Amino acid sequence: MRARKSCNVPALLLAALTLTTISYGQTDEGTPHLRKQGSATQLIVDGKPFLALSGELGNNSATSLENMEPVWPKLVAANMNSVLIGISWAQLEPQEGKFDFTLVDGLIAKARENNLRIVFLWFASWKNGTSSYPPYWVKKDYTRFPRIQIGDGSTVSISGPVELLSTFSEATRDADAAAFGALMRHIKEVDGTKHTVLMMQVENEVGVLRDTRDRSPVANHGFDGPVPVELMKYLEAHKDTLAPELREVWAANGYRKSGTWTEVFGPGKPLSVEIPVQTTMPPMTALEHQDSWQHLHWPSDEIFMAWNYARFIEKVVQTGKAGYNIPMYVNAWLQQPNHAWPGTYPSGGPLPQVHDIWRAGAPDVDILAPDLYLEYFDSVCERFTRNGNPLFIPETSTNPANAIVAAGKYNTIGFSPFGIDGNRPIGPDLAAAYNLLSQLSPMILAHQGNDSMTAVRLSQGDPPRKVKLGNYTLEVSYTGRSRRIAPAPRVPGAPAPPQPDAQEPPMEAAAVLIAAGPDEYYFGGGGVRIDFKPDTPGPPNVGLGDVQEGRFVDGKWQVIRQLAGDDTGQGEILSLRPNTILRVTLYRYP
Ligand code: DGJ
């Protein structure tokens, strides 16, 4: 004992020294990072996986602390645990090399006061394709910070230089990277051991608008030159797993191993074709239009721009991570049926058809994220989880079913409706879903990435859905809004959340389904009935054992009501009412 004690003294001293020295400008093991768990990638914060139940503020809401005062309580009331906040390069670096971090510090302090985490959005060279957030000293220096050029002055309606900074400028790239690096060093200084800031979004919805690519002389020179060797090598090394949309165009050109952009990937847009605002009009036929929004059109143009945006942003990200290494992502304005051609959406952004190009050009970007307003929610999630891309949804609508499905089926790191402090506030339904997901999150996070969890969504009139999970096949049918519509309060005695308007249209039902053991399930969400069929040898009939309605408090299950009789159809019907969590055990009988 004595010997052991004396041996430990230096270790204790070292530990004490370490504790006292971790403070300003330090990071520790709790620093946010990504970690694989089965097929999922999780955000780890303070050593534990974190499910971000978020909202994104209006673009300029956080440009002053005064303007944010009434916003913080709304975020807390909506049961959010984190918030996405834009930081403007113009405000951060009003004079070149002179940084003002007062606002960043104030936002971090207020978030801590409200028990919220932050994802900052770096609105710098590009925001929605264009360049409205760079500082005045950048905007007015047209020579040092060149803009892209589109059209040839006669064949497109908008021609000549436009207000999009060009990716072909080292000066722009280095100025953006320097500012981002300074921001990240500062965040590390003030937050490196507290971890209020979870992740960074770098730029916002980048890409060329109103044409398929930059047609400035320097861009044309690059476009007429060879595809860079690094990109060709990447494509060859990943040939078997490339996104099918990309492989299709490479295959159509004979999987060439070198050549110009058009030789390797096919034609760019002829100058004679104008980019309309929408693409339902000629020259696209009705048939082409039907599925056109999921393919590459004029592939070499979009691929060329994807590579150049990726290379620019890689430098910004590398500089930022050298200052403070936390997860960083880029977000995409998506191709959609009436905006199917590159240029009607930002051409070259991190869309799924060019994910491989982004992976090759910007390996330090951790996540390629969708701004997901489309009705095809599930298919977008599927395209954004190919090849192990972690899912994070920085912008979306406030549909609670989408939040449940993203967490339970697509292993999302976070869900974040846009504009939640403005005209798209989080209503009672999403607030209730956030309450439910935050209770369930330890269980959801423990099951992400393995096949013991999924989620279903059903609308009124949909046929029942069969799901194999654990030892049973679950048949899930729509029941809709019946009885309970707000969840039980998380803490006994706390006021119940507001109830939705009784006149609302039929709800979309959604539920997370978790197999916790051979005959044990947790179900969260609601508006469904669940029937069970065994998938293992033994007696054919399935009985409901314990049916408990409850809550998780600090990850521990607490029963609110034990259900039988009328609440389970006399033991024969399992209904998951909206915004409830059930723990159910099953047994078999002949
Ligand atoms: C997508 C952008 O990324 C947001 O910043 C915002 O401009 C919304 N569109 C507006 O709907």
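qc> The longest strand covers residues 541-553.
qc> done
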